[in-house]
Fold this sequence. Notes:
Elements: H1 2-14, H2 20-31, H3 50-64, H4 79-93
Amino acid sequence: MEEIKTRIKDILVNEIEVNLEAAIQNANLKNNMQNSYEHISLFDDAGMDSLMLVDLISSLEIEFELDLQLQDFENLKTIEDLALMVTQKLSKNV
């Protein structure tokens, strides 16, 4: 799953243009603790909006050769959640 997290992180930074360093700082200030990028909130800490989510879905579909729906993302909050969902979808495709 670490490879999947890394690939998702690369998509967020390079294609969606999420500033993960700033997101981690935001999360650390709010939670008064040290967070890693896997545990930041995609929407609250990273500042993603609905258009960025559509771009993310498209990029993930291409990167992992998956068919994703908006509903797949309803309960996802962190990169960790996202990596788990992608891992589960990939295991169903095998």
